[in-house]
Specification:
The chain is mainly α and 221 residues long. The strands form two sheets. It has a two-stranded antiparallel sheet with strand order 1-2. A two-stranded antiparallel sheet has the order 3-4. 33% of the residues lie in helices and 6% in strands. Residues 50-87 form the Peripheral subunit-binding (PSBD) domain.
Length: 221
């Protein structure tokens, strides 16, 4: 039993721990993981990126920051090809990014559009103005002397028939336009429904739209 006790107290060999087969890399020798785009653009001593005005404009147009573009030109100057390559890479990266499938959040109730019904004068006004917009129009501009018209207005203003009412130029201008339509009948015409003829009218009515709280109103008298 004594030899057995000695064998248990003093084993003939011990299991050494396994040695690692991977050697540690010396400090400073591991390759750096780059972005694949090269170094940033070289900076001038004053802090300005070396690039021509045309290249700067191209970068603005395609939305590329010059500071992120590696310059391959002399002294690290950014060239047009550098900007185009960076723009192509950004477009590819954007295309690879999955878009969010979430629906946009609904707008608050206070920002939702409000539908107000049109009634009465306003509804009729919208219908009349919409129909008038489909009528062929012509415009004529001229400068005229109104000295005689102003003297006529002053003479009529003192008439007893006005009974102290103020006479404006508007009724006088309407009368002048009426006389013009009699002398130039082409101005008192409309396009036929077939679009192949012009209808010359022998009568005319001139109305003036007045702004009222209910909308635009054309008086009959």
């Amino acid at each position: 039993m004594e030899p057995l006790r000695q064998a248990l107290q003093h084993p003939s060999h011990t299991d050494d721990p396994p040695h690692s087969t991977t050697a540690a890399s010396p400090a400073g020798t591991q390759p750096a993981v780059g972005s694949g785009h090269g170094a940033p653009a070289q900076m001038h001593p004053a802090g300005q990126i070396l690039a021509s005005p045309a290249v700067r404009k191209l970068a603005r147009d395609v939305g590329v920051a010059l500071a992120s573009v590696p310059g391959t030109g002399p002294s690290g100057r950014v060239t047009k090809e550098d900007v185009q390559a960076c723009s192509t890479h950004q477009a590819a990266a954007t295309a690879d990014t999955p878009s969010s499938s979430e629906s946009p959040a609904p707008a608050p109730a206070s920002l939702s559009p409000e539908h107000r019904p049109l009634r009465g004068y306003r509804r009729a006004m919208v219908a009349a103005m919409t129909a008038a917009a489909a009528v062929p129009h012509c415009h004529f501009f001229d400068d005229i002397g109104v000295d005689e018209l102003m003297r006529m207005r002053e003479a009529l203003q003192g008439s007893s028939q006005l009974a102290g009412q103020r006479l404006t130029l508007l009724p006088l201008l309407i009368k002048a336009l009426s006389l013009v339509l009699l002398d130039h009948e082409e101005l008192n015409s409309s396009l036929g429904e077939d679009g192949a003829s012009i209808i010359v009218h022998r009568r005319h009515n001139i109305g003036v739209a007045m702004a009222t709280p209910s909308g635009l109103v054309v008086s009959k008298h």
